[in-house]
Design brief:
Blueprint: E1 3-9, E2 14-20, E3 25-29, H1 36-48, E4 52-57, H2 63-66, H3 69-76, E5 80-82, H4 87-91, H5 93-99, E6 112-113, E7 119-122, E8 125-131, E9 140-144, E10 149-153, E11 156-157, E12 160-161, H6 171-182, E13 190-193, E14 199-200, H7 201-207
Parallel strand pairs: 3-4, 4-5, 5-6, 10-13
Antiparallel strand pairs: 1-2, 2-3, 7-8, 8-9, 9-10, 11-12, 13-14
Length: 212
């Protein structure tokens, strides 16, 4: 069974996710830990639970989701995995951070590219990949059919959707991704997003003003 631990990190209050199962293998998704105290929160949880990180994945590469890439990659000797279309976003990361006046740590370049249909395996668990662009050109969603969970990055929020006015964003493509990729998975899927509280597909189908 997949367990999900979330941390709220960084100046943009981003949700970082750590997924693990009974084998204690875990994956780290969108590490937004910006400073040393936040790095220690993540590191201490992993130590206390005796977890073994085996993958580092970005749902997309906006700065708030990649602040901790370098720390996680160096500490746990992991290769970064992203969708290739978000590589320009990752390459612009430090420039974007400078525009906000933030002293950000560099991110490693990706070593693995992932796309729709790929399978992410850790321990006894697996996640499938959907390509869900619109917020960024290479946004992906990770989901598990058995437990009805999805990690969506900034594609879909509680009562809202991700921004599409950033470089590489497109509002029509974003709505298409949500309506044609996420909603068909079913109303009982829990949605773990990049900011704010989790939600579920059934609630968003009926109540999200951007989807009605």
């Amino acid at each position: 069974m997949i367990n999900i631990k979330s941390f709220v990190f960084g100046p943009f209050q981003e949700n970082t996710y750590l997924l693990f199962d009974e084998t204690n293998e875990c994956i780290i998704i969108d590490p937004g830990c910006y400073d040393r105290p936040e790095q220690l929160l993540l590191e201490n949880f992993i130590k206390e639970k005796q977890l073994k990180p085996v993958k580092l994945i970005n749902t997309h590469c906006h700065l708030d989701h990649v602040f901790g890439n370098g720390f996680v990659a160096d500490t746990y000797k992991l290769k970064l995995e992203i969708n290739k279309l978000d590589l320009p976003v990752l390459d612009a990361y430090l420039t974007s951070a400078n525009l906000y006046g933030l002293n950000a740590s560099p991110s490693p370049q990706p070593s693995v590219y992932i796309d729709e249909g790929d399978i992410i395996k850790f321990g006894n668990s697996m996640l499938e990949i959907l390509f869900t662009p619109g917020h960024s050109p290479g946004s992906i969603t990770l989901y598990n059919r058995e437990q009805k969970i999805m990690i969506v990055g900034d594609v879909l929020f509680y009562g809202s959707i991700g921004r599409s006015d950033l470089p590489g964003g497109n509002s029509e493509i974003l709505i298409h991704s949500i309506k044609n990729k996420l909603l068909p998975l079913g109303d009982n899927y829990t949605v773990y997003n990049g900011h704010g509280p989790s939600t579920n597909i059934g609630f968003e189908r009926i109540n999200n003003p951007f989807l009605i």
